[in-house]
Amino acid sequence: MMKRFIKNSVGFLISIILIYIVLFKPHPVAWFSGDADIWKAMFGELRFGVSDLKEAGTMLRPVPALIALIILLASMVLRTIRWQFLIRPIGKTKFRIVFWNNAIGYLFNNVIPFRAGEIIRAILVARFSKLPAGSLVATVVLERIFDVAGLALLFALTLTIYPFPHWLRIGGGFLSMVVGIIILTGWMLARSRHTTANWITRKTRNKSNIIKKLAMTLNSILQGLGVLNNRGLMVHVVWSTILLWGMYAIIMKFAFDAFSFTDGRYPLLYGSGIVEAGVVTVVTSFGMGLPSAPGAFGTYHGSVLLSLAWFRVPESIAVIFAAAMHAFNFITMSLLGLIGIARLGVSWQWVMTQAKTSSKEINSNYVQDDDLGDDRI
Question: pTM here?
Answer without folding.
Answer: 0.84
